[in-house]
Design goal:
single chain, 9 helices, globular, Rossmann fold, alpha/beta
Length: about 220
């Protein structure tokens, strides 16, 4: 029986990939690099993680990455975040029955700023997100374990909702068996995660309510 639901932020709650693309175009402009102008071309460059994206864009030194992170944070905080249609109502409904947490590799200021604007901030018992502009990549594995432990809930009673291969991979490392990847987010590739066994298909946010019941 599921007692705690952990949400990803980008690609699950907010349609953020266009904003991320714009932020990276600014990063590249300021660092003298070239960034694809078309969104779908940038999607191919972004790859598995932001670290892989930096590699593809030729942002290689630690100094450049720190500068890039600082620029990204500044740019993303200025942008309007667009919640996916229906996701606010879904989160409010789930809050009636489950504990909710959010774990994101984006900046905590961004997450809290936008959730407050959406009227959702107080619905989450725990929020773990990136802090600082250091190079070390934020991984969700430890945060998942901390969230479950702090909640006093067993891992088998936790469901995480993400939208990318990395969400499944890091959740599996944490020992989670209940992983739901939505089809409307940044996109995942089943060939890259053959162990993932989708119990439900989520084409739009409102589908999450029925999908959760299958776990």
């Amino acid at each position: 029986m599921i007692k705690l639901i952990i949400f990803d932020y980008d690609g699950v709650i907010v349609d953020s990939f266009p904003n991320t693309h714009d932020a990276y175009k600014t990063i590249c402009k300021k660092l003298g690099k070239s960034c694809p102008e078309k969104l779908e071309d940038f999607r191919k460059v972004y790859g598995h993680t932001s670290s892989e994206c930096y590699q593809q864009l030729g942002i290689l030194s630690e100094e450049e990455k720190i500068k890039g992170n600082a620029i990204y944070k500044e740019e993303i905080l200025k942008k309007e975040a667009k919640p996916f249609k229906g996701i606010i109502e879904v989160i409010k409904e789930l809050h009636k029955r489950y504990k909710l947490a959010l774990i994101s590799s984006t900046y905590k200021e961004e997450v809290e700023q936008k959730l407050k604007k959406f009227g959702l901030l107080n619905l989450f018992d725990f929020i773990f997100a990136r802090e600082g502009t250091h190079v070390t990549r934020f991984e969700k594995t430890d945060s998942i374990k901390k969230t479950a432990k702090s909640s006093g809930i067993k891992l088998e009673e936790v469901l995480i909702i993400g939208d990318r291969n990395v969400d499944f991979i890091e959740s599996s490392r944490a020992g989670l068996k209940n992983v739901l990847l939505v089809d409307y987010g940044w996109g995942y590739n089943l060939d890259g995660i053959p162990e993932y066994d989708p119990k439900a298909v989520v084409k739009k946010p409102k589908d999450i309510l029925e999908a959760v019941k299958k776990y």
